[in-house]
Amino acid sequence: MEDFQVKDKSLAVQGHLQIEWASKHMPVLNQIKNRFSQEKPFKGLTLAACLHVTKETAVLVDALMAGDATVALCGSNPLSTQDDVAAALAEKGAHVFAWRGQNTEDYYKCIDNVLDFKPNITLDDGADLVGTLHSKRQAEITNVKGGTEETTTGVIRLRAMEKDGSLKYPIVAVNDAYTKYLFDNRYGTGQSTIDGLLRATNTLLAGKTFVAGGYGWCSRGIAMRAQGLGANVIVTEVQPIRALEAVMNGLRVMPMEQAAPIGDIFITATGDISVIRKEHLEKMKDGAIIANSGHFNVEINIPDLESLSVSKRTMRPNLEEYTLKDGRRIYLLAEGRLVNLAAAEGHPSEVMDMSFANQALCSEFIATSERLEPKVYCVPKELDMKVAELKLKTMGVTIDELTEEQKKYLSTWEMGTT
Ligand code: ADE
Question: Which three-class secondary structure state does DSSP give residue 7?
Fold first, then answer.
C-alpha cells in the first residue's frame, strides 16, 4: 500500500505553484521554518495532522518537515481538501490521505490512516482526530506527548473532555491565542465566507437583508463584511453580551423566528446545532439563500430541509435548489458545510500566517516540554506576543517602546491624581 492517498497525483504541478503563492504571503511561518531547519525540533517525532488540506496548510507542513518531523495529514472536512495541494504535498514526502468530496466513511478511514503512523504530536481542527484516538484507539495514546487544536468548536469539545476526565493528553488551544482568533476568526472568516457566497451565487449584497447567525468572532467578521458591501445586517444571538455588542455596532438583533421571513441571505457560524430548522425554513421567502460557515454541517438542519422539499437540483457548483411543497425555493450552499472552504479557498494566506505560526510554535513547545498535564492549555503568552511582533515586522510596521519612566509608572501605585 502507498503511504499516501490523494485524488490525482498529476495535479501536483499546479499544487506546487499554489503552495509557492501561499508561501510568499506567509513570512512569519517562513521565518519559523528557517529556524526549524537549523534546530530540527521534531527530530525523531511523528506529527499527525487533521487540518483543512489547503495551500496554507501545505506551508505549515513544509515548516514542520523542515524541523525533521515525519508528517501524516488528513482533511478536517469532507469538502475542504484542495486536490492539487494534496498531490503536491504527497510529492514533498508528507503522508497525505485526503481528497475533496469524501463520504463520512472515507473521512474517518483517512483519520485512521493517519493514526496508523503512531503520532507523538497531534494537530487537530475540530477534534475529530483526538476524538477518534480517545474513543477507538485508546491504547495508542501512550505514544502521544501532546496536541494542538485550531478551532473554536474543537476547543469546546476538548474542554468538555477535560471536564468529564476523558482527556488523556495535553492540548494547546491555538484557537484561543489573540493572534489567532482576533484575526483568523474575524477577518479570515469574514472575507472567506463572503468569497464562498459570491463564488457560489455571484449575488449582489447591496440592499439585501443579510442574517448572520451568531455574533462570536467568526460571525462578527461575516456581519462586518456583509455590512461593508451594503447589506442590511440582522444578527441572531443567544448570548446577551454579544447581542448587546451587535446592537451597539448598529445592527438589528432579533430571534431567527423573526428574521426568517425577512432575510434574503442567511449565514450561520455559531458552533451549535439546528440554528436554522423547520420552523424557520417554513417562513423563509422564495429565493432565500442559506449557508453555514461554522465547523460542522449541523447548523442548518438539512434533514428538515429535505423533509419539507419535493425536489432538488444543482444550479451551479456548490448551489443546490430545494423546491418546497408550497412552491417556494430555498438555495443551500455547499451542502451546509463550511462555505468559506467548500465554495472558496478558506482564509487568505496572510491571516493563516499567524494561525499557523502559532501551530508551529505550539508544536515545538510540546516537542520540547518536559511534562505537561492532560489539560487544555492556553498558548503561552510570549509565543502569542512573538507572533504579533514578527507579523508587524514583516508588514513594515514599527511601534513605540515603553520608556524607563513609563515602565516605572506602570509598576508602582503611589502616583495618582496630580
Ligand atoms: N481554515 C480556514 N481557512 C483555512 C485555510 N486557508 N487553510 C487551512 N485551514 C483553514
Answer: coil
Q: How far is the CA of 316 from the centre of ligand 1 (A)?
A: 23
Residues 312/19, Cβ–Cβ less than 8 Å: no
Instruction: Determine if ligand 1 sits within 6 Å of the CB of residue 350.
Output: no
Lookup result for grid cell 478558506:
346
Residue 368's identity, in one-letter code, is T
With H, G, I as helix, E, B as strand and everything else as coil, classify residue 128: helix
9-180+347-394 and 187-342: same fold?
A: yes
Question: Taking the mean position of all CA atoms in its chain, how far away is CA 265?
Answer: 22
Cα 152 to averaged position of ligand 1 atoms, centre (Å): 13
Per the document, the length of the chain is 418
Contacts of 417 (CB under 8 A, 6+ apart): none
Topology of the domain comprising 187-342: Rossmann fold (3.40.50)
The phi, psi pair for 94, rounded to 5°, reads -80, 150
Q: Where are the domains of the chain?
A: 9-180+347-394, 187-342
**Mind listing the pLDDT tens digit for each residue in 274-322?**
999 999 999 999 999 999 999 999 999 999 999 999 999 999 999 999 9
Check pocket membership of 54 for ligand 1, CB cut-off 6 A: yes
For 52-65, what is each residue's pLDDT tens digit?
999 999 999 999 99
Sign of the four-CA dihedral 378, 382, 388, 394: negative
CA 250 / ligand 1 centre spacing (Å): 29
Binding site membership of 352 for ligand 1 (Cβ less than 6 Å): yes
> Which of the listed residues 51, 347, 354, 356 should we mutate to test ligand 1's pocket, taking the one with most ligand atoms within 8 A of CB?
347
Q: What is the pLDDT of residue 418?
A: 87
Residue with the smallest CA separation from ligand 1 atom 9 is: 52
Do the strands 319-324 and 252-253 form a parallel or antiparallel pair, or are they unpaired? unpaired
CA of 341 to the centre of ligand 1 (A): 7
H or E segment and range at residue 265: strand 265-268
Q: How far apart are CA 39 and CA 35, in angstroms?
A: 6
What atom in ligand 1 is closest to the CA of residue 345? 6
CATH numeric code, 9-180+347-394:
3.40.50.1480
